[in-house]
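User: Can you help me understand a structure? I only have the sequence.
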Amino acid sequence: MTGVGITDKKKRNTDNLCRELMEEPDIDTYIKKNQPFFADSSISDLLTEFYKRQKISKAELSRRAGMSEVYLHQLFSGRRKPSRDKLLCLCVGMELTIEETQKLLRLAAFGELYPRIKREAIIYHGIAHHTPLNEINDKLFKEGEKALC
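Assistant: Let's start by predicting it. Here is the structure, written out as C-alpha coordinates:
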Protein backbone atom coordinates (compact mmCIF):
# COMPACT_ATOMS: atom_id res chain seq x y z
CA MET A 1 0.00 0.00 0.00
CA THR A 2 1.70 3.17 -1.16
CA GLY A 3 -0.75 5.76 0.12
CA VAL A 4 -4.12 5.99 1.73
CA GLY A 5 -6.72 7.66 -0.43
CA ILE A 6 -10.04 9.06 0.64
CA THR A 7 -11.85 5.94 -0.58
CA ASP A 8 -9.51 3.78 1.53
CA LYS A 9 -10.37 5.86 4.58
CA LYS A 10 -14.08 5.32 4.01
CA LYS A 11 -13.56 1.56 3.76
CA ARG A 12 -11.67 1.43 7.05
CA ASN A 13 -14.52 1.28 9.51
CA THR A 14 -14.13 0.03 13.05
CA ASP A 15 -14.97 -3.56 12.10
CA ASN A 16 -12.25 -3.55 9.43
CA LEU A 17 -9.72 -2.08 11.87
CA CYS A 18 -10.64 -4.70 14.50
CA ARG A 19 -10.22 -7.50 11.98
CA GLU A 20 -6.80 -6.16 10.93
CA LEU A 21 -5.76 -5.77 14.55
CA MET A 22 -6.63 -9.38 15.31
CA GLU A 23 -4.79 -10.64 12.22
CA GLU A 24 -1.65 -8.51 12.64
CA PRO A 25 0.98 -10.29 14.76
CA ASP A 26 3.02 -7.10 15.28
CA ILE A 27 1.31 -4.12 16.96
CA ASP A 28 3.94 -1.67 15.67
CA THR A 29 3.14 -2.65 12.07
CA TYR A 30 -0.57 -2.20 12.73
CA ILE A 31 -0.05 1.24 14.31
CA LYS A 32 2.17 2.44 11.46
CA LYS A 33 -0.22 1.17 8.79
CA ASN A 34 -3.34 2.60 10.43
CA GLN A 35 -2.07 5.88 11.91
CA PRO A 36 -4.39 8.00 9.70
CA PHE A 37 -7.44 6.20 11.09
CA PHE A 38 -6.84 6.83 14.80
CA ALA A 39 -8.98 9.45 16.52
CA ASP A 40 -6.88 12.59 16.57
CA SER A 41 -8.88 14.99 18.69
CA SER A 42 -8.93 15.18 22.44
CA ILE A 43 -11.93 15.33 24.75
CA SER A 44 -11.20 19.00 25.45
CA ASP A 45 -11.08 19.75 21.70
CA LEU A 46 -14.43 18.11 21.09
CA LEU A 47 -15.99 19.76 24.17
CA THR A 48 -14.75 23.12 22.88
CA GLU A 49 -16.17 22.42 19.42
CA PHE A 50 -19.58 21.59 20.92
CA TYR A 51 -19.45 24.54 23.33
CA LYS A 52 -18.80 27.05 20.53
CA ARG A 53 -22.35 26.41 19.29
CA GLN A 54 -23.80 27.25 22.69
CA LYS A 55 -25.43 30.54 23.45
CA ILE A 56 -24.60 30.34 27.15
CA SER A 57 -21.65 31.38 29.27
CA LYS A 58 -19.36 28.86 30.90
CA ALA A 59 -20.80 30.01 34.24
CA GLU A 60 -24.26 28.99 33.01
CA LEU A 61 -22.89 25.71 31.64
CA SER A 62 -21.28 24.91 34.98
CA ARG A 63 -24.63 25.52 36.69
CA ARG A 64 -26.54 23.37 34.18
CA ALA A 65 -23.93 20.60 34.39
CA GLY A 66 -23.77 20.64 38.19
CA MET A 67 -20.05 21.33 38.49
CA SER A 68 -17.82 24.17 39.57
CA GLU A 69 -16.51 26.70 37.07
CA VAL A 70 -12.95 25.87 38.09
CA TYR A 71 -13.47 22.17 37.32
CA LEU A 72 -15.19 23.07 34.04
CA HIS A 73 -12.25 25.25 32.95
CA GLN A 74 -9.85 22.42 33.82
CA LEU A 75 -11.82 20.07 31.57
CA PHE A 76 -11.87 22.51 28.66
CA SER A 77 -8.15 23.18 29.01
CA GLY A 78 -7.35 19.46 29.06
CA ARG A 79 -5.81 19.58 32.54
CA ARG A 80 -8.43 17.16 33.89
CA LYS A 81 -10.16 14.17 32.35
CA PRO A 82 -13.79 13.83 33.39
CA SER A 83 -15.35 10.67 34.73
CA ARG A 84 -18.06 9.13 32.58
CA ASP A 85 -20.81 10.64 34.77
CA LYS A 86 -19.23 14.12 34.70
CA LEU A 87 -18.97 13.90 30.93
CA LEU A 88 -22.65 12.96 30.76
CA CYS A 89 -23.48 15.95 33.00
CA LEU A 90 -21.70 18.20 30.49
CA CYS A 91 -23.67 16.62 27.64
CA VAL A 92 -26.89 17.36 29.52
CA GLY A 93 -25.75 20.90 30.29
CA MET A 94 -24.91 21.61 26.64
CA GLU A 95 -28.08 19.85 25.43
CA LEU A 96 -26.07 17.66 23.08
CA THR A 97 -27.73 15.08 20.87
CA ILE A 98 -27.46 11.36 21.54
CA GLU A 99 -25.02 11.05 18.62
CA GLU A 100 -22.78 13.81 20.00
CA THR A 101 -22.93 12.28 23.47
CA GLN A 102 -21.99 8.83 22.18
CA LYS A 103 -19.12 10.36 20.18
CA LEU A 104 -17.73 12.04 23.32
CA LEU A 105 -18.08 8.82 25.31
CA ARG A 106 -16.22 6.84 22.63
CA LEU A 107 -13.45 9.43 22.38
CA ALA A 108 -13.00 9.32 26.15
CA ALA A 109 -12.82 5.49 25.95
CA PHE A 110 -16.02 5.09 27.97
CA GLY A 111 -18.89 2.80 27.12
CA GLU A 112 -21.71 4.36 25.15
CA LEU A 113 -25.10 4.78 26.76
CA TYR A 114 -26.86 1.42 26.73
CA PRO A 115 -30.64 1.70 27.00
CA ARG A 116 -31.12 -1.94 28.10
CA ILE A 117 -29.90 -0.87 31.55
CA LYS A 118 -32.49 1.12 33.52
CA ARG A 119 -30.09 3.86 34.73
CA GLU A 120 -28.69 4.26 31.22
CA ALA A 121 -32.20 4.36 29.72
CA ILE A 122 -33.18 7.21 32.06
CA ILE A 123 -30.05 9.18 31.14
CA TYR A 124 -30.46 8.40 27.43
CA HIS A 125 -34.08 9.60 27.51
CA GLY A 126 -33.07 12.75 29.39
CA ILE A 127 -30.39 13.61 26.86
CA ALA A 128 -32.64 12.83 23.89
CA HIS A 129 -35.38 15.09 25.28
CA HIS A 130 -33.06 17.82 26.65
CA THR A 131 -34.27 17.24 30.20
CA PRO A 132 -32.52 19.39 32.82
CA LEU A 133 -29.96 17.61 34.99
CA ASN A 134 -31.95 18.04 38.21
CA GLU A 135 -34.97 16.30 36.63
CA ILE A 136 -32.81 13.43 35.37
CA ASN A 137 -31.28 13.05 38.83
CA ASP A 138 -34.74 13.15 40.46
CA LYS A 139 -35.92 10.34 38.18
CA LEU A 140 -32.76 8.33 38.87
CA PHE A 141 -33.31 8.76 42.62
CA LYS A 142 -36.99 7.72 42.38
CA GLU A 143 -35.94 4.59 40.51
CA GLY A 144 -33.29 3.73 43.11
CA GLU A 145 -30.42 4.54 40.74
CA LYS A 146 -27.26 6.56 41.34
CA ALA A 147 -27.53 10.25 40.41
CA LEU A 148 -25.23 11.64 37.73
CA CYS A 149 -23.69 14.59 39.60
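Now, to help you interpret it: The CA atoms of residues 22 and 121 lie 32 Å apart. The radius of gyration is 18 Å. Let me know which part you'd like to focus on.
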